[in-house]
Amino acid sequence: MSKYFSKEKLKYVFYTMSHPVDGYYWIRHIDKGSVPIAVILVMLFSFSFTLNRLKASFVVNELDPRTVDSLTELGGVLLLYILLCISNWSVTCLMQGEGRLKDIAIAIGYAMLPLIISFNLATLVSQFIADGEEAFYYLILGVGIAYGFIMMLIGIMQVHNYTLAKTLITLFLTLLAAFIIIFIGLLIVDLVTKVYNFFESLYIEIVFRM
Amino acid sequence: MRMSKRCSRAIIIILAVVGMLGNCGVALANDLPYDTYNYNFYEYIVYTPAAYVPAGSISGTRLVYNGEPLGAFKNPQDICKTPDGEVVIADTGNNRIVFLSKDMKTVIKVISEFENNGEADKFSSPTGVCVSKKNELYIADTYNNRIVVLDNNGSLIKIIRDPQSEILEEGYVFSPLKVTVDYADRVYCIAQNMFEGIMVFEDNGQFVGFIGTIEVKISLWDKFWKRIATKEERSNQKLFIPTEFTGIDIDDDGFVYASNIDEDGTQAVRRLNPKGEDVIKKGANKNLGGDLWTSGYTRYSGPSQITDVVYRQKGMYSLLDRRRGRIFTYDHEGNLLYIFGGLGTQAGTFVTPVAIENIGNTIIVLDAYRAEILIFTETMYGSLINQAVALRYDGDETKAVELWEKVLELDENNELAYVGIGKAYLTAGDYVNAMKYLKRGMSSEFYSIAFRRYRNKVLKENMSYILTGLIVAVFALVIGVSIYRRKKGIVREEGLLNE
Predict the structure, then answer these.
(1) B273, B186 in Cβ contact below 8 A?
(2) Residue A64's closest chain B neighbor by CA?
(3) Most exposed of A87, A125, B264, B387 (fewest Cβ within 10 Å)?
(4) The complex's ipTM?
(5) Cβ separation of A59 and B444 shorter than 8 Å?
(6) Among B439, B495, B497, whose Cβ lies nearest the Cβ of A58?
(7) Model-level pTM greater than 0.95?
C-alpha cells in the first residue's frame, strides 16, 4: 500500500504541477509516480466537473440540474481516460516512445490536478459574482484548462523522451487511434449482438418446434 | 421513536385533509379537457393551475333573430368586438355578418346585404370583420375583391377595391382576408397571395404601401444546392417565399399586432409601429413562437401554427395555435404568462380554431369546423396574473406584490411571481429577501443588481474589520513561516530532488 500512497508520493503530485518537466522525467525514470493516485485524480476531476455543473451560481450556469448525473459523468470521464491512455500507448509503441502504459496513465492523471483546483475554485468564486463579472469565472476555468493541457503535453513529451513537434504529431495520431478504437468497439458490439440474436432465434425456433 | 412515527402520520393526514380543502377554489387540471402548463427557466414543462376554464359555447342553431331561428353558422372565419363589447361574427359560408349581444345570448342584427348606388348588394365569402372606434364596420369581402365599410345603421360609407400602385404586379387580384382599422381610420389588410406584407390604405381608400414584410431566410446549404442545380431543376424546386400573415389586431396606440406561421417556431407574432418596423419585445428565452417542445412525427408535433392574435389590455396579447389548439398569452416584455386549450371533440376543445377575441374577463374562440364560439372564463389564478401584470405595466410593482403572493399560493413554481416580489424587495432596499426571491425566479439580471448592492453594503459596513484582519493575517504568515524555517533548519528552499 505504501508503495502507492506514501506521503512522498502524494507530495510529488504537487511537485509535478509546479515543476512539470522535472517531475515527469523522474516519474519515468525512478518511479516517483503512482497509478492509483492518477486514477483517483481523474475521478476527483470528474466529481469537480459535476459539482461545477450542479453548484455554480445561476448567473454563469444555465444548466438544468436534472440533466446532470455524476455517475454517468464519472463513467464517461474514466472511459475517455482509458481510451486516451490506450490509444496513446498503441501509437507511441510504434514511434519509439520510451513510456510504459503506466507512465502514460500517470502523465495524463497528474495533469488533472490544475483542472480539479480551477473547477472547484471557479465554483466557489461563482457564488460571489454578479452579472457582468463572469469574466473572472471564465478566466479561472480557462487558466486551469490551459495549464492542464500544457501539463499533459509536457508529461507525454517527457515520458516518451520526445521533441515537442513529435509530441504534437503523436497526439494527433492518438486522437485518430481513439476513433479507430471506438469504431472497432462498436463493430464488435454490433457483431456480438447479431450472433446473440442468431442463437436466440435459433433457441426460440427449436422451443416452438418441440 | 414510536411516538414520533405516530406523530408524523397524524401530521401527514392533517396535511392531506387541509390540502383537499385548500384545493376547492382551484380548478384542478384533470377536470379540464386540456393541459395547462408553462415553460420554466430551463424551458421545461411545468404544469400550472388553469388560467381559463371552458364556460360553454354559442352556436347559431340555438339563436333566434326576429322570431325566427338564426340557423347554424357555416364555416365562420372571424370574430371581433365593437367598442360597446358586442360580438361580430363573419359567417363566411352564409355570406352574412352577425351581431351578438355582449353575453352572446341574443342576436342584435344580421347584415347580409346593403344598398350600393340604389341597388341591393351582397357579400361573397366575407372572411374578416373589424369594427373601428367610430363604430364603423369593415368587412373583407373576399370573393368580391373589396373591403366594404358600413356605418352603424348598415348603410354604405365606402368601398375599398382595386389598389393602384407601381409596386403591385400587373393584373394583381385583390382578395382581402383580414382587416383592422386604427384610430385614424387607416385600414390594415392581409390579402391572399400577398407575401410583401400587410397592405395599408388611407382613410380615403388610397393604397399607400406595405408594412411588416417578413424576410425570407435562405440557409447556406439551400444556396449551395441552388447554385449547382440546372435551370430546369430550379424551376421544379419550391420557391423561397415569405410566410403570409394569418391574423391581425391593433392596440390603442395604433400598433399593429400581426401573427404568422413560423416554421422555426421562434417568432409567430410581430408588433409593428406606424413605420412598419417590428418593435415587439422578446422574453428571456427569445421565443415568441408558442410551444417550445415540438419534436416528434405525429400530426400534433411541430412548431405551433399561430392563426390569430388578440391584443388584450396593458400590453398583454394572446396567440391562437391551430396545431395543438393552444392559447398562449404573453405580457409586454414577451414573458409567457399561461397556456391553455387543446384540440379534441370534448366540450371546451377545438377542431379548427380560426379566430380569438377578448371580451371583458372572457376569451372567446371561433371554431370554423364546429361553427361555434367557445367561451373561456378567467379563474382566480388567471385573474391574479392578469391584474398583477397590468399593475406592473403601469409601473406599480409594489402594489402587485400582494397579488403575486396570492399567485404563489396557487402555483409555487411561478417564476414571474418570484421576480415580481423580488423586484419589490429590491426597490424597498431589502436585498437579502430580494436575492432569495429573484434567485427562485431565476432572474439573473435583477439578482445581480440585488447581489451587487448587498455585497457593497456588507463590504462597506465591515471594511475596518476586513482590513485589520488582512494585515494581521499577513504578519502572522510571515512570522509563522520564519519560525517554521528556523525550527527545521531550512535556509533556502531547494528542488526536492537535489539531495
Answers:
(1) no
(2) B42
(3) B264
(4) 0.76
(5) yes
(6) B439
(7) no
